Each structure stands twice: as C-alpha cells, then as structure tokens.
Amino acid sequence: MLIDAYGRVIDYLRISLTQRCNFRCQYCMPESGVELGEHENMLSHEEMFEFVKICIDNGIKKVRISGGEPLVRKGAEDFIAMIFAYAPHIDLAMTTNGYFLKSKAQVLKNAGLKRLNISLDTLGNEKFKQIARRDGLEQVLGGIEAAKSEGLGIKLNTVAIKGFNDDEFDALMSFAAANNAQIRFIEYMENKHANPELKSMRAEDILSKIATFKNFKEITKHPQSPSRLFACDDGYIFGLINPHQCDFCTTC
User: Is residue 121 a part of any domain in this protein?
Assistant: First the structure.
C-alpha cells in the first residue's frame, strides 16, 4: 500500500506517454511548440509496463494515460491492452484532445479503456482554430460521438477564458448533457508557455456566469478529486476545477 505525506492512500497513477501534441493550444504552449526530450530517452511501452505492474501490485486501482496528446504515440492502445491483460479490474482512463478518437474509440474500448476526459473549449469552428491554432473541431466532435457509441465514460474539460468562451458556457453544458457527459470548467492557470494576453476566470466568476442560466448547489466531492461538483435543479451535475484555491494541492 502506498501512502503519501498527507496520510492518503495512493491508488491512482497517471502516465504521460509523450510530450508531443498535434495542437498548439494558447493556454498550454507557444505556436512553435515546446522543447522535446530526446527520443532515445523515452521509455518503451514495455519499460513503462514493468513499473505499472509494480504499482498495481502495491495497490494502484486507477491508471490514467495522458500526454501531450497520448494518441500521437504509436501503439497507445497496445500499452493499454498490456495493463488490462495484467489487471482487468483496473480503472483505465485517458485524457485526450479527441482529435484521433473517431478512428480509435473502438480500438481503445477493445483494449480495455473505460473512460475518457476530452478537451472541448468551444463549439465554434473559428474559435476552435483560434485557441488550438489548428483546425479540428469537426474531428473532435466526431470523436466524442464515436466514444459515446462505444459506451466509454466521457467527461469534457473546458478551460474558462474571459472574453473568449464565457458566452458559450450554456451551450457547452447543454452539449455535454445531450451526450451523457459531465462537463468540468477549469480555471486557466497562467504559465510561461501560454499566451500572456489570455484572461483567467476565477471560480466565483465561472459560477456567477453559470448562475445566469442554471440553478445549482454544491454537493460533496470525492476527497481526492480535484473537481468540485454542483447539482443543477434539473439533475445535471457539472464540475469545477479551481487550482488557484489555496487547498487545491492538498486535496488533488
């Protein structure tokens, strides 16, 4: 059993398959991308799997695959299949921008993946191209549909940016509900790679905007989850991730 300095049992492992990404999102990296490590320094799937086995044997119950964009790495589904074959009970999840999901959803489901967190900051084509610096909304929406058809659990991650997508919160929430997905609004975290002109929205700003079209109340969240949860009068539940909150790291 793994226990951290806060006395919490560690049962969740996150693995970054790659630093590479096919998008250049303004809140994440410059248009030129970020400096990548040498290819020969990357662990192979087999090397990572040896570590994963040790973690599972010591109490890990959930594994999340992330990146960069994990699906730009060849054979991501093979790595998932290795884990699933070793421990079918493990909760296997992936964080992705959704671009490759339309062709990969069935393969990932068959490999043992159970859940997806998919980035979706806007439903507008021009806005999408502006924030991601790539054209890809149609592919992402197709990927969400494919994942839903395969019965994969879906959460949508929306970075809240003042003056950019705060006028779409209602539409994004409606889209998520229509696709049986929980949407989670995320405070934008300023960083050295991001466009300095982006304007962050704090938790109270996000909730105030949502309150203009939804009645909701906060409900109990999992103590180790970074997401605060809110239940709307119509029964829909959405999340809020606010890393600017002072206790974020101790509860994440």
Answer: yes
pLDDT tens digit sequence for 119-155? 999 999 999 999 999 999 999 999 999 999 999 999 9
Ranked by mean pLDDT, the top range of 28-37, 113-122, 184-193, 225-234 is: 113-122
- DSSP one-letter string for the chain: -EE-TTS-EE-EEEEE--S--S---TTT--TT--PPPPGGGSPPHHHHHHHHHHHHHTT--EEEEESS-GGGSTTHHHHHHHHHHH-TTSEEEEEE-STTHHHHHHHHHHHT--EEEEE---S-HHHHHHHHSS--HHHHHHHHHHHHHTT-EEEEEEEEBTTTTTTSHHHHHHHHHHTT-EEEEEE----TTS-TT--B--HHHHHHHHTTT--EEEE---TT-S-EEEEETTS-EEEEE-TTSTTHHHH-
Report the CATH number at residue 66: 3.20.20.70
How many structural domains does the chain have? 1
Average pLDDT of the residues of the chain: 91
Residue 36 domain boundaries = 2-197
Q: Residues of the chain with pLDDT > 90: what percent? A: 78
